[in-house]
Amino acid sequence: MPAIPKAQAPALVQFYNWVFHPLAFMETHYRQMGDRFLARGTLMDWIFLSHPDDLKYVLTHDGQELSAPGEYNKILTNLLGHNSLMLLSGAQHRQRRQLVMPPFHGERLKVYGELIRTITREAIAGLAPGQAFKAREMTQRISMQIILQAVFGLRQGERCQRLGKLLAQRLDLSSGPLGSALIFLPLLRRDWGAWSPGHQLKALAQQIDDLIFSEIQACRANPDPDRSDILSLLLAARDAEGHGLSDQELRDELMTLLVAGHETTATAIAWSLYWVHHMPEVGARLRQELETAGSLDPVALTRLPYLSAVCNETLRIYPVGMLTFPRRVEQPITLQGYDYNPGDVLVGAIYLLHRRPDLYPEPDQFRPQRFLDRQYGPFEFMPFGAGARRCVGAALAMYEMTIVLATLLQEYDLSLASDRPVQPQRRGITLSMKGGVDMVYRGKHPLPELVAEV
Ligand code: HEM
What we know:
Layout: H1 11-20, H2 22-33, E1 36-40, E2 45-49, H3 52-60, E3 66-67, H4 77-80, H5 90-100, H6 106-110, H7 112-125, E4 132-134, H8 135-152, H9 158-173, H10 176-184, H11 197-221, H12 230-236, H13 247-278, H14 280-293, H15 298-301, H16 305-317, E5 327-329, E6 333-335, E7 338-340, E8 345-348, H17 350-354, H18 370-373, H19 394-411, E9 412-416, E10 424-427, E11 430-433, E12 438-444
Parallel strand pairs: 2-8
Antiparallel strand pairs: 1-2, 3-5, 4-12, 5-8, 6-7, 9-12, 10-11
Helix pairs in contact: 1-2, 7-8, 7-19, 8-13, 9-11, 11-13, 13-14, 13-16, 13-19
């Protein structure tokens, strides 16, 4: 039986490369060792998997053979708290998922359609023709407003504005390569005095917590059965013994949804804006589809084939979530001739999967057409992971991406500030971009031109 190939560089070098150059780290090891390799992810060894058959097995056997322990996500405790969905395991994790999933799916999701459009228009309304702006900052404002509404039912008001601003500041602190090191190295997060990042983190965290706790108290004091936001639903939830969630549990869950629910989506939408403007043929074909479709209600937008191909290709080429959360082997298993033993930690390398030339010919080319030519299975294309920890916000994220991109293209004329390609860069545990995509607002969009297939 062959042994799983192992990265040879010293552990510290591997750790450094994973934090500062995650894509090169994965690509290099993939080139040297193939579909499975053992390397130092954070502070432990992980087996990176990128073959669709391996991923299918590992992500569909959560239970006896494999588990998805929350303790492996403990680097997030500082930001999200011990009671976050991402840190729970087993039955407790399953129950909490059932509680938070429904508001992000099906009929409930539709409620957000017009709201997303309105928020998008408001976000661009302050710009004058010729004005430069950073796409990532604008999309972050949009996704923040949407998630605040979904989580708290908060749209306007001082508390909402402050919370949005403080959260953005908190997350900006852990963006960029150095900021990302804050997540992985607990020592850096200590309060070493007024000018240390640890001190700023603590002060911001305190202000954010104060706001969230006062929102929880206000909602507890005035329960309203007509409210359908997540805070109201979580407050009403009871376990088998009739106990509700404590304030601290509520705070951790709300924080999880606020953070996971807007950072990732903001990056994905900013990338989509970049690609449709960086590749004028793609932009023109998409505008043509939107023009032909006319004025559609938001749900109908999700059925436009090229629009969804553009969103999918955006999430394929630089997946915002580079990896699935780790899985632990509980009982010996053999996959494609390789043995995995209890205690082994496996991660799905979404980025490597999405770059496989056997699935995606010329994988570094942005080509939405591939999603029209072929139907990809759930273990061939998986920007939202799969199995026990599949993203709870996947449907909301796709909905948001589709509506924001369509609204901006249909109604406004935007352009990139330069032709230079935008490079990916780690932002905390996600994959974002360097510089945030510099764009220029030009006013209302002119009529689209007819174009050939791209
Ligand atoms: C484009 C946007 C997004 C991307 C690419 C993304 C990606 C992911 C990925 C890859 C995972 C790990 C899945 C796994 O281990 O199998 C995940 C988990 C998660 N996502 Fe998302 N996500 C996005 C948007 C959202 C939104 C909008 C929300 C909330 C409203 C959200 C909430 C979560 C939560 C709570 C988890 C943890 C689930 C668990 O531990 O059970 N995400 N996401």
